């Protein structure tokens, strides 16, 4: 095992692997292909405020080389402001950078609910801009959740319209280029 590669994946239920648990998650799939340690710090229902509140114990205590940060969907469902979501995300990125942790932004998956999806489109664009400004890698987890006409692919989502199916988690994993962790 490569002890220099330790990745913490901080997020919500879509990081955790809901409803099947971590064994079905994209995080476990990544752990199976990398020489290193991949730590699942996804908690069902977490908002970016929750993630920020637990940042030290969920991320910093592991002294990771990398952080994959994905969140915002629960914030949108709960009616949190765009400014609060982006402040929380930027704060977590800056805390990680201060500790010399390489940050990778996970672009949130689609939801099959038009208003929530409209808000997520704005958040995804902001995350891409932040990555460009700070020279961060991204994993576009949203990409496979749209068909060639830009419609949400409900076949990759559970009946709730927000959580990936098993095929959805596999599609998420397929978006990860393991080479982004080698530098």
How would you characterize the overall build of this protein?
The two termini are 17 Å apart. The model has no long low-confidence stretch (mean pLDDT 96). β4 (102-107), α7 (114-134) and β5 (137-140) form a beta-alpha-beta unit. The protein is an alpha/beta fold and 183 residues long. α2 crosses α8 and α6 packs parallel to α7 (114-134). The longest helix is centred in the C-terminal third of the chain and has 21 residues, at 114-134. Helices cover 40% and strands 14% of the residues. The chain has helices at residues 13-16, 26-33, 48-53, 55-58, 73-77, 82-98, 114-134, 166-173; strands at residues 6-11, 37-42, 66-69, 102-107, 137-140. The chain is built from eight helices and five strands. A five-stranded parallel β-sheet has the order 2-1-3-4-5, with helices on both faces.
Q: List unreliable stretches of 5+ residues.
A: none
Structural class, please? alpha/beta
- What best-fitting shape do the alpha-carbon axes yield? globular
Task: Give the distance, in angstroms, between the N- and C-terminal Cα atoms.
Answer: 17 Å
In this structure, how is the largest beta sheet organized?
5 strands, parallel
Percent helix, as a range, is 25-40%
Strand order of the largest sheet: 2-1-3-4-5
Helix-strand pattern? EHHEHHEHHEHEH
Number of helices: 8
Give Rg in angstroms. Answer: 15 Å
- Global mean pLDDT: 96
